[in-house]
């Protein structure tokens, strides 16, 4: 038995088979389906296994039959995974073949198009213009059924294949030697072109892989490269007593089901009465005064919205973001004029009310049930671009006014699921050390998006004080929504979405959060809660279970009452309750009910991707994670056996994106598990590194880390935990940074050392010996400037036409003197930053004074340059002079300030903020770049005082500098541990940890890696088979890589012939730059094929 193939437990025989699969690089075809029925106990088990080599895995499909056939074993069906039936889809624009120059000319949005009296007509004019231009300049895919061809197949492959067939036919008719040679050459050329195309296609795909790329997407690509396409067919739906199999009937059935979910009839009669009574009172959003967020949109807002949009499927109008990005400046300005008309005239185009819905089956659900599909709405990209502009203003106002609860972490800048995970873990740890109970309830809100009360959203906005264009646009956006379901190339009838927000639009998440976040305001003070979009969790702790039960029941009643008044429904059946406790006494499970239905009590719960068990050992989570990663290792096994996807860089990138990212997620929480539990993940890490590097099975794990340049998992968890800790401190009002740790808890943890500390205290202990122990992190205010009023910054560069490397310093001095003559009325101030070993400083030089400060050692020279500019502006502030010119030799600092972004360096935000303040006070401040070290006196003085600055400037440190400094310290700690392993064979070759170049040919790179590590098949296979070590017949010493390459006198003459030296070292032969003749030498002595 093993959990790897679906058993509940793992026994010794299961572990033996696991090792067999891992050690021999085999792949398991089984999924979690049961294969055996034990009649005496009436239980099902997974006993029958299907194992194959990695090359076969993409080609096979594993299923288990449902009929026992008079046996106790179910039949196992292993079939060839041939491409299924194709579904016909609408034609798509082929943007890789677009003529964008011609498109920009044809897609000319004129003033007359957007100035018509009717807004809907103006929008239609823009749509027609863009679609006509696209149809004339961008080819479309064929509307015929899709052909199953390999993604790497291109015209070069086709032409070479045709030439090969042509010469083959000639040879068959005229079998001469000349024709045979021509055919063989054509065949070799075609094979070379195909392999090159495979390789290039795979490299392009690898470059697009991120941590959000799923293993399913990778498998799809791997199978496609082998010509296997997993095309899904139309599902057969069951609605009542009717069965639907025709595409149009399926689309209409799904559309009817989606419409029913959002219909008023789906609400309870009590809420319908509340809804009708409330909606009789119209919400008057008319603004009495001009509010800044209601001002007209500006061009930089449109450009920002387009730059942040990801390429997605088009809506009903067929417009894509690619088209909008390639509009000329005049067309963009007219499009902005149209958006401002919609904004100020408070009218909404009728085309934007419609959406095309794509049904996506929920994981693990029955495909025949229409309610098991998630409706993803494809809306107009024109509309979504405008939504993104509106959403930026809405979010800014919500965050600035503090309208959203700090306990809501969903889709907020600087926030993540980790916040809720860490908060829950901290509460549980503190309850354990106080020997208390903690009961937590995890709620399931049914159809939360589709049933959100629209009037309730608008009422919440009204109560927040929103008036004018913004809330009126949102009201128009939510009104009169319709949709059609698309199944392949078939569309359903039009359906009305009465309530809810469309899943897939830009504004939907923000509007949903606005409404649902209000639920946290109704929690009693003694109950803690957190929310990630609609994932609601509450908890209560204490020593008396009866008291906890009463308090939680009271909280649940208040939450249910709020939901009853706002149209939401909490499912008691799908909600879960967990009693966290380490006491050994028997306690009854808490009985908490929702409308007289008890909430099920479970021993563990999957919360935001991490499994919390009642004793917080995290063993269930790590076992689940190990099983998931074991299956994902099959991708690496398959790719390592191919000629096109097997280089170490590609394999490591896939490992980091698919497997390592899964182990990274939540590690700041589950990393508190006992070391014996955490070590279960180390085997996954080691197996993956062995596959990526091709290292022999007996290679030490420390060598695997160094050869692949991958941190050990425990150091990686420390890195992620510390960086999250600092990141939380950099976000204003972050709930983690505001956690209190009272003195009595300090004393309790000290008195009870067996209890594990909560996250923040664990991280502080981790940082105790570093220079970052007591540093303060500079806050990164993402909302310093409103999106409709970003700061303007520009600078002078009078030296732009001169190259510093080829221009004499005296030329720069003359240019500077001429420049000063032009700006003689401006008071000059020189700034500079300096960083050397153990010292970071900044300097400011003005005609009347000099300032120099020493900064923390973790600060970068870029930060020092920015701090110097900031200090200069602070010095300017009290001055009576109004004209200043600031000189700096940091072009990167000036360019950063001139490209404003909400994620820019926090000191840069400070500079822009104080600069805006000074300009409002009538200061005229100019910035100018000067070259360094060319004899410009002010710059030379600023550089000198920055290098020797001693006065410490008490400043908070930017997160980016802390991150870089901590990672470098962590790698230094790794290097120190590596320095102690002097007996490690790789250490003599690679004493310093670093990233070495790899060889493009997988087989050769594997052999080189094994030589460097010192473990090869010839020298170390005896450890696997329990044999004696191989002994050199000449020297009577054990065969080792060092002995064969360096010591053995039998090969001395060959060393001289190949290396032209009688004495060489391992670093000379297999170091970072390996000897070019090393492989010829190994072939000569007959060792090459035994590595």
UniProtKB/TrEMBL annotation:
<keyword id="KW-0808">Transferase</keyword>
<dbReference type="Pfam" id="PF00078">
    <property type="entry name" value="RVT_1"/>
</dbReference>
<dbReference type="InterPro" id="IPR000477">
    <property type="entry name" value="RT_dom"/>
</dbReference>
<dbReference type="InterPro" id="IPR052560">
    <property type="entry name" value="RdDP_mobile_element"/>
</dbReference>
<dbReference type="Pfam" id="PF14529">
    <property type="entry name" value="Exo_endo_phos_2"/>
</dbReference>
<dbReference type="Pfam" id="PF00075">
    <property type="entry name" value="RNase_H"/>
</dbReference>
<dbReference type="GO" id="GO:0003964">
    <property type="term" value="F:RNA-directed DNA polymerase activity"/>
</dbReference>
<keyword id="KW-0548">Nucleotidyltransferase</keyword>
<dbReference type="GO" id="GO:0003676">
    <property type="term" value="F:nucleic acid binding"/>
</dbReference>
<protein>
    <submittedName>
        <fullName>Putative RNA-directed DNA polymerase from transposon X-element</fullName>
    </submittedName>
</protein>
<dbReference type="InterPro" id="IPR036691">
    <property type="entry name" value="Endo/exonu/phosph_ase_sf"/>
</dbReference>
<feature type="domain" description="RNase H type-1">
    <location>
        <begin position="823"/>
        <end position="951"/>
    </location>
</feature>
<dbReference type="InterPro" id="IPR036397">
    <property type="entry name" value="RNaseH_sf"/>
</dbReference>
<dbReference type="GO" id="GO:0004523">
    <property type="term" value="F:RNA-DNA hybrid ribonuclease activity"/>
</dbReference>
<feature type="domain" description="Reverse transcriptase">
    <location>
        <begin position="341"/>
        <end position="612"/>
    </location>
</feature>
<keyword id="KW-0695">RNA-directed DNA polymerase</keyword>
<dbReference type="InterPro" id="IPR005135">
    <property type="entry name" value="Endo/exonuclease/phosphatase"/>
</dbReference>
<dbReference type="InterPro" id="IPR012337">
    <property type="entry name" value="RNaseH-like_sf"/>
</dbReference>
<dbReference type="InterPro" id="IPR002156">
    <property type="entry name" value="RNaseH_domain"/>
</dbReference>
